[in-house]
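=== RUN LOG ===
request id: a7f3
mode: sequence -> structure
chains: 1
length: 456
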Amino acid sequence: MSEPLHRVQRAIRAGTEAPRLEVFTERQFDAIEPLRRLPGEQRRAMRAVAQVLPFRVNRYVIDELIDWSAVPDDPLFQLTFPQPGMLAEADLAAVLSAMDRGDRTALSEVVGDIRARLNPHPAGQQSLNVPVENGVPLPGMQHKYRETVLFFPAQGQTCHSYCTFCFRWAQFVGDKSLRFAARERDVLHDYLARHREVTDLLVTGGDPLVMKTRHLADYLEPLAGPRLAHVQSLRIGTKSLTFWPHRYVTDDDADDLLRLLERLVRAGKHVALMAHYNHWREMETPMAREAIRRVRDTGAVIRTQAPLLAHINDDPAVWARMWRTQVALGMVPYYMFVERDTGARRYFEVPLATAWGIYREAMQQVSGLARTARGPSMSAAPGKVEVQGVTEVGGEKVFVLRFIQARNPDWVQRPFFARYDENATWLDQLKPAFGEKAFFFEAEFRRMQAERLQAN
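=== RESULT ===
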């Protein structure tokens, strides 16, 4: 178990040698001692899944977060280690067969085929979101919504550990054609300068906070100058507060990182760490709490978000406790997402009706300070669609939906209705209610898709 927080702080002040990040991938599977306690057939299946979906975990997660006495049901084990059910039975059998034969060519072909069927870039990430100027796509950027630009710095396209549900799994499998990444900071800054409508920059990945602070500063410090004064908010998407809180406490450049955040706050920017928390246990270690405290002391805000996931947090009590803990630690609950239609979604997805019920029950258990979390929200191709409820209108049972954000700002906050379907898990599985042939936005969205196809 971790030391009490005061001992962590005392050790830091005394200059005790800081722990180093020790990472394990599929190649080091056998070096993860607790895995040896699992049945051999289970380990074999886990390795097969790790051929298809990326696997990376670190010593802190293994030693501090996972309850090995509760494996395989432990939620943090499910969050970080591949599970046999993440692949269809036929796909798992095909991978195992190629592995058993030692046929690397066949294994590569099988894995490539499976990945292609796992929808590696959902919601038009490559086909619709990458900005094009003068007929040239700008790599490593996405501009889906008018006010917000996403940027993928090349040095941040990995994570301290990988989440098994990750919708950006394709970033990590070694196929350059599937990756978003950019090294040219000037391309980002020039694009922002030309687009005065952009008020928010979201630096994402991977995890930007795997980067050394000096590299991160190259991308971020120009935001403090007058040329980019219209970019009011900086968001940094990160799982580091869970997977490596030492980044803010004991890493060699931890203090440099905190000073960078402070400088941006003093320059008048709203700085937000968009922290991914999937379970309340991620916030329980003294190191995690010290990291949260230090970030908050810079003036940056920590906003929290996560998808609703079978096997990990499909329980209103888990969400209620997670939100209450976040508020107690000074963080702001922000989003409950619906698991995206990519990767291992077949293992993690929860029907929309169930998701709404979990959200509603969790909200009933918390105070108003935790009710800032929006959801359940689908980050679909047209925009972020929130399930607002299930009701009956004119004798027809329906989902009540709305856009929280959209490709066309005019769609935002417009309620619309879908026929109730207890099994539907995503927007494209829903049908318009009341005999309508299409949702109100569909014709315009198809025009957008056609125009982008022509532009490309």
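=== NOTES ===
The longest strand covers residues 383-393.
The mean pLDDT is 92.
=== END ===
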